[in-house]
Structure formats: C-alpha cells, structure tokens
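Category: protein sequence paired with discrete backbone structure
Discipline: computational structural biology
Format: plain text, a pair of labelled lines
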Amino acid sequence: MLGDPDVTEIDINVAGEIHRLSCDKLVAALGFTANLGPLLEWGIAIAGRRHIAVDTQGATSVPGVYAAGDIVDYDGKVRLIATGFGEVATAVNNAAAYSQPVGVGVPGTPVGLRAAGRHSVADRVIVGVGIDVVPVARFAGALARTPTLADRLFTPKERVTDSGGARSAESLAARFAREGGARQGVGRTRWHALDGRGDRG
C-alpha cells in the first residue's frame, strides 16, 4: 500500500509481476483461504484439500471432532460470516451432546428430553453466538461526554473491579463489546439484564 496518511495506490503481485493500481479504499477479506496444515494428518475427510467435510451437525468423519466456519464444506455451503455464526452454535451444541450425552441439549432437540422422556432443568443449549468490536478511544470519549452513560449500560457490580476499584474506560469498553456480542447471541435484552462479572472473563 502507498500513501500517507490515506491510501492512494496499491501494488499487486500477479505471477511475480508487480502491477500498481490507484486505490482510495482497501477492504481486507480475511479467512477465505484455509491452510489445513497438520489437520491433513488427522484422518479427517477433506474436501478439495482446502476444507474439512462436515455433515449438518458440524461433525467430521472422525467421531467426536466437529468444525465450523470458513474451513468447512458441505452441500449448499454459503461462505458468509453470518452463516459461520450459525454453524458454530450448531457444531458446539452437537459436540457438547457427544461429550456429555446426558443432560445436554442441541437446538430444538434436548438430549435429556429425548433420553428420559421429559424435560430436565439440566438440559443446556447454546442458543446463539455473537461478536462485537468497540473502538476504545471512541467509547472513552462517550463516557467522558455523558457521565451517566456507564450507569445506563452497566450494573453497579460491573463498574468496579474484583478488588473494588473503578474500572478503566478500556475495561468498560471490553465489557460493552462482550455484552453486545451476548445480545446478538441471545436476542435483544435490557443492558442490565446481562451482568458480566470477573476481571478475566
């Protein structure tokens, strides 16, 4: 990339020959070229030496091994981020059901219900996956401009560290991103309905 501070040109290597093109925006599309590396030695069925073959449960050809995201392939696969989120929830639920056959459910079919003939509070289901990114400087500026913002977004226990001190703007930004991702996974909720605890998680 060339240009300072904004991108103005970009060099592209095509079969060893450099082509310089005008450019004012660059979008990085990452993750679409998979490098399986040592996974090729696991005995897992591979689709076209680039992707791991899975079924509708996210299961590979090796019992107990599940996969999701850009690295997997199956009939009708659509390579979108949103698709990957759904695949992760499906694969993780089914992996949990495989490793703990009793008391763990998969979406729509709780294993406990199926095995015992009744629903049990022990049935656990991963209902969704979410992700969020928060620019720390921008979030810190919002906190400084609106002193009541932290009160609206976080519970009293969330606003302090485990040792009782006030959390930094960086720490609150991380919690804001975590709760934003959680809201994507479980659905729209009130901010105070999600109470994140702990300095490390």
User: Anything to note?
Assistant: The beta strands are 9-14, 17-22, 46-47, 51-53, 72-73, 105-106, 109-110.
